[in-house]
């Protein structure tokens, strides 16, 4: 599966790619008063991620990080080792039992439209993502945040419905970028991003469906990045994107494995990759009377899937036994998973009396192949008929995990075991549409949540991960690599971002002109 697949595509024919990528003249800056005068092309970083978001709402699953991280900033940052760093929030303090959190905010920040960044803005964003956007990224807010209270302009307090010691991890991710409350209020945030970053969207210098121009925001609160401006492109055709990169019309692009020989043979291109997407099968209809209520049914279906076949569909994918991989908090080396044991699957099925199972799973054009293979493998069992319904990308994003289908395959983006459990498996998890959890799993999770910050936490969460696997609530795990290519004649210091598990992303702040 292409890691650019979570975007709507805008195909740019190869013959006109160079024309569309050429620089334009005009005024720079965003929709506010902070725009600067026109900048030369050498002041503009040109990046292609293969499509554009269908919405710019904060917390939207349809807005990939490579786009989100240009206009928006988050309250905190997270190092790959888990260290939380200040950003728009400078200090924080958890209440007793991690049931509340008080944030101290910067007092020198404005949004691109001139709206002040303050505690009211934070409250607006949290409540909007929690109550309106929802989904995979808004769901944890819905299940965990009871109230948001403004103390004063620079202090905001959150009350949680459960111990939420990992809330700062969540604040560093795609769940809660800070958007202008004025743009949220008038609805324009859906089509026009308004954040607090060094780059403000400029509609006049953009080409609808082809290029989005983000100009230097003169009132930015922090250090200036290496490039004053950023142009984002939507070239979905890999051949066209490679040609544009080699010619110098693009500086950076995501790419696919089959393009690497051509790129690596060029003297002016470097590449790197990193693990970006975690995909697995979730059994959603597992409540009382549900199609997948019986644990043995889930086990048999999981055993019928050959993860290596799924991985072989793309050279940038590896099969895994669990959501977290070696070296990550939550990884359990004792988990063996369910993989390629059709004989055992048929034995279980026969013990069950070869029951009839008919179910449908949704798929988008970008992941139809791998989902179809899973469906065909499960359908090898007697009386099992799992079929695939092809959806448009927007339909897929809005339905694959909301209970419209009894099972689903897609990205599980949670980077901590507490958030993965809280998003998909707890009784109140927004993505647990069955609202069912076993007493054993609930008890293990309660123990793990209560041990946050103690030496026992890792072992306790490993036990939770083991139980999720034992109950076959999720299986057929894979990790997808993101491949990035850049033109060394035009840019330097292109490197992965600090954020983990985020596709189509580079460290925008670090990149600078090659000269």
TrEMBL record:
One Gene Ontology term, aspect cellular component: ATP-binding cassette (ABC) transporter complex
Xref: SUPFAM superfamilies: Periplasmic binding protein-like II
Keywords associated with the record: Signal, Transport
Signal keyword on record: yes
Keyword Metal-binding: no
Residue intervals of the Solute-binding protein family domain: 84-423
GO biological process assignments: peptide transport
Domain of life: Bacteria
Matching InterPro entries: Peptide/Ni-bd, SBP_5, SBP_5_dom
GO MF, one example: peptide transmembrane transporter activity
Pfam families xrefs: SBP_bac_5
Family: Belongs to the bacterial solute-binding protein 5 family.
The protein's name in its UniProt record: ABC-type transport system substrate-binding protein
Organism: Leucobacter luti
């Amino acid at each position: 599966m292409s890691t650019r697949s979570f975007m709507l595509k805008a195909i740019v024919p190869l013959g006109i790619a160079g024309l569309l990528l050429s620089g334009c003249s005009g005024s720079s800056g965003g929709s506010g008063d902070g725009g600067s005068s026109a900048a030369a092309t050498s002041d503009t970083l040109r990046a292609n991620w293969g499509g554009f978001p269908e919405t710019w709402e904060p917390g939207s699953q349809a807005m990939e990080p490579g786009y989100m991280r240009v206009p928006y900033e988050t309250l905190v940052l997270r190092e790959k080792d888990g260290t939380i760093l200040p950003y728009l929030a400078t200090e924080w303090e958890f209440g007793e039992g991690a049931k509340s959190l008080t944030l101290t905010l910067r007092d020198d920040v404005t949004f691109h439209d001139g709206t002040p960044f303050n505690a009211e803005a934070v409250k607006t964003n949290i409540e909007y993502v929690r109550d309106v956007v929802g989904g995979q990224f808004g769901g944890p807010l819905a299940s965990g945040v009871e109230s948001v209270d403004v103390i004063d302009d620079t202090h905001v307090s959150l009350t949680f419905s459960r111990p939420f010691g990992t809330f700062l991890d969540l604040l560093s991710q795609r769940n809660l970028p800070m958007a202008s409350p004025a743009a949220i209020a008038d609805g324009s945030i859906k089509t026009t991003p308004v954040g607090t970053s060094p780059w403000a969207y400029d509609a006049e210098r953009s080409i609808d469906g082809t290029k989005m121009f983000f100009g230097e925001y003169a009132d930015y609160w922090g250090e200036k990045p290496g490039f004053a401006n950023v142009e984002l492109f939507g070239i979905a055709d890999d051949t066209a994107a490679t040609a544009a990169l080699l010619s110098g019309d693009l500086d950076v692009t995501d790419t696919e494995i089959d393009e690497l020989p051509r790129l690596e043979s060029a003297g002016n291109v470097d590449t790197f990759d990193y693990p970006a997407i975690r995909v697995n099968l979730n059994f959603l209809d597992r409540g009382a009377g549900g199609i997948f209520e019986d644990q043995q049914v889930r086990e048999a279906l999981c055993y019928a899937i050959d993860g290596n076949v799924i991985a072989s569909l793309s050279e940038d994918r590896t099969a895994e036994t669990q959501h977290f991989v070696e070296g990550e908090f939550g990884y359990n080396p004792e988990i063996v998973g369910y993989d390629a044991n059709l004989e055992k699957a048929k034995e279980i099925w026969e013990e069950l009396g070869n029951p009839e199972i008919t179910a449908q799973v949704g798929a988008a054009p970008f992941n139809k192949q791998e989902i179809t293979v899973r469906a065909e493998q499960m359908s090898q069992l007697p009386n099992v008929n799992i079929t695939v319904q092809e959806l448009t990308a927007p339909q897929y994003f809005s339905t694959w995990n909301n209970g419209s289908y009894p099972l689903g395959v897609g990205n599980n983006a949670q980077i901590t075991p507490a958030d993965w459990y809280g998003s998909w498996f707890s009784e109140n998890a927004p993505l647990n549409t069955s609202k069912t959890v076993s007493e054993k799993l609930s008890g293990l999770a309660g123990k793990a949540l209560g041990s946050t910050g103690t030496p026992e936490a890792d072992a306790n969460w490993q036990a939770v991960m083991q139980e999720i696997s034992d109950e076959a609530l999720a299986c057929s795990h894979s990790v997808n690599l993101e491949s990035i290519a850049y033109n060394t004649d035009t840019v330097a210091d292109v490197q992965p971002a600090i954020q983990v598990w985020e596709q189509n992303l580079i460290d925008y702040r670090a990149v600078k002109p090659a000269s």
